[in-house]
Design brief:
Elements (H helix, E strand, L loop, with lengths): L13 H14 L9 E7 L5 H15 L4 E6 L4 H11 L4 E5 L4 H13 L5 E7 H4 L3 H7 L3 E5 L10 H12 L2 E6 L10 H8 L1 H4 L3 H8 E4 L5 E4 L4 H9 L2 E4 L10 E8 L3 H16 L9 H15 L2 E3 L5 E3 L3 H15 L4 E5 L2 H13 L3 E5 L6 H10 L3 E7 H4 L10 E4 L6 H8 L11 E8 L4 H9 L4 H10 L8
Parallel strand pairs: 1-6, 1-9, 2-4, 2-5, 3-4, 5-6, 10-17, 13-15, 13-16, 14-15, 16-17
Antiparallel strand pairs: 7-8, 11-12
Helix pairs in contact: 1-2, 2-3, 4-6, 7-8, 12-13, 13-20
Length: 480
């Protein structure tokens, strides 16, 4: 019998330790000869399920059961996995995020797959391109596949779900990570479990549907759950599932923070770099540069990371969708958990774009931005209306005097440079009436001023003074 422990550089919370032990038991990794199967870790956003995933991968590697891992996640989460392994993995590994076009990804997969045995080889890819690379991913032959935000494959008819089913059939171990398994209807379970462990509900959707549902509604196309089979359904559901909500994690700190790093498209990054050089070149002589000079130039760079440039006449030009795509993934996850969300942004163009996204998703929301007069009406709507799931606030307008404790998760789409505004914005959900621990997510464009702005706010440092000092030392204050 092999001794199993969490090979991580961190002290796990109690619920993370229990999740790890549950997974080890279900996968049977204490007996390597018969180990295998799948586990569903149903842990809400902010509960640290990715750390558990890192620990399980490491434990399987150290016992000699896996040498290759495939992680499939929404595009905006790929960088999170890289950061989690860097922070926590206490075992040798080589992690590769598949970037670029399909040809480049295929070449990367071939190279990584042919590498000699050594450190744990990890490939991270997004759902949208996994089905296009199904043949190559099958050849990669991962021993462990992790489906992060597994509700992305709840519709078993999509190409990406079918690809995950096929890949899962060939992998010895599978992990399904999601905050919720059932969002609107019990039938959502099938496709996710078809990937995770097809022995639970079988490989035939028709047989699953006919056993647990009867067809009704107009035309007989609506599956209606057979409640007399609820006990059987739940027994099967929980047979491989570890479930924990944020409210149940009593040892979590009051505040947890997560940085989601997004990559601007090559065309957008080219525009950003040109703007960065131009901003640096337009600064006055070192002896006369001031905080106002630097922050004025920084403003346009911050606007660019949010996806827009505004000319002197106020005309907006979109240059990137990286952040709005990342926010879309977060919103989907929160909606799947049937939770509420607060989104804070700085610029008008960003606010407009986020409102368009919410309208496209048919999500009811409240908003406070410049020009909104009925502030309390918007707050009351968010706090009390069960159909209102998102509060959108412009940092300068929504940072003071509001109670938004109907949500315990806040996304900072962008940041202004004021420590006071930042702290006030965070306090909208972290208040006496809050019943859950608070989780803050920062969207940060890789290789841009976003990282400097966030670091200065976290360090309680004067951003303007730091940038002026860098300039006077002969450095480009706008480069990372």
């Amino acid at each position: 019998m092999a001794e199993v422990y969490m090979p991580i550089r961190a002290h796990p919370y109690e619920h993370q330790r229990r999740a790890f032990e549950f997974a080890c038991g279900i996968l049977g990794i204490e007996n390597p000869r018969t180990a295998g199967g799948g586990v569903a870790l149903l842990m809400q956003m902010g509960c640290g399920k990715s750390l558990v995933g890192v620990a399980i991968a490491g434990a399987l590697y150290q016992i000699g059961l896996v040498s290759k891992v495939l992680i499939v996640a929404p595009l905006s989460v790929l960088g999170v996995w890289q950061e989690e392994f860097e922070r926590f993995a206490d075992f040798p590994y080589e992690l590769t995020i598949l970037n670029g076009g399909s040809a480049k990804k295929r070449e990367t997969l071939r190279r990584v797959g042919q590498a000699e045995k050594g450190p744990l080889r990890i490939v991270v890819n997004n759902y949208e391109s996994t089905w296009r690379l199904e043949k190559e991913l099958l050849s990669f032959n991962a021993d462990l596949i992790i489906a992060d935000e597994g509700h992305k494959i709840k519709d078993g008819t999509t190409a990406q779900s079918k690809a995950m089913h096929h890949l899962g059939d060939h992998a010895r171990f599978k992990l399904l990570l999601t905050g919720t398994l059932i969002s609107n209807k019990e039938i959502d379970v099938y496709s996710q479990y078809r990937f995770c462990d097809s022995r639970v509900f079988g490989k035939s959707f028709i047989q699953f549907r006919n056993h647990f549902f009867e067809m009704g509604g107009y035309g007989g196309y609506t599956p209606i759950f057979r409640t007399y089979r609820q006990d059987e359904f739940l027994q099967k559901l929980h047979s491989i599932a570890f479930r924990v909500t944020k409210a149940e994690c009593l040892d979590l700190p009051e505040i947890t923070e997560e940085v989601r790093t997004v990559e601007l498209e090559p065309s957008a990054m080219k525009i950003y770099r040109e703007l960065e050089k131009q901003s640096f070149a337009e600064l006055p002589e070192e002896s006369t540069v001031s905080a106002t000079n630097v922050l004025t130039k920084l403003l346009r760079l911050s606007q660019a990371t949010g996806g827009f440039l505004t000319d002197d006449e106020g005309k907006k030009t979109r240059i990137s969708t990286a952040k709005i795509d990342a926010l879309s993934d977060i919103i989907d996850s929160v909606m799947e958990e049937d939770k509420k969300l607060v989104v804070m942004a700085r610029f008008v163009a960003e606010m407009d774009e986020i409102e368009k996204l919410l309208q496209k998703k048919h999500i009811d929301y409240a908003v406070i931005r410049g020009g909104v007069k009925n502030r309390q009406q918007e707050v009351d709507k968010f706090q009390n209306d069960t159909n209102c799931h998102v509060f959108l606030g412009q940092i300068a307008a929504a940072g003071l005097g509001l109670t938004l404790t109907a949500a315990s998760t806040m996304v900072f789409y962008s940041l202004d440079y004021s420590m006071s505004n930042h702290d006030q914005a965070k306090a909208r959900i972290h208040r006496v009436s809050q019943k859950e621990d608070c989780h803050y997510i920062y969207l940060q464009a890789k290789g841009t001023v976003d990282s400097k702005v966030l670091k200065s706010l976290r360090d309680k440092a004067d951003l303007a003074s730091l940038l002026v000092d860098e300039y006077r030392q002969g450095k480009n204050p706008f480069s990372e």
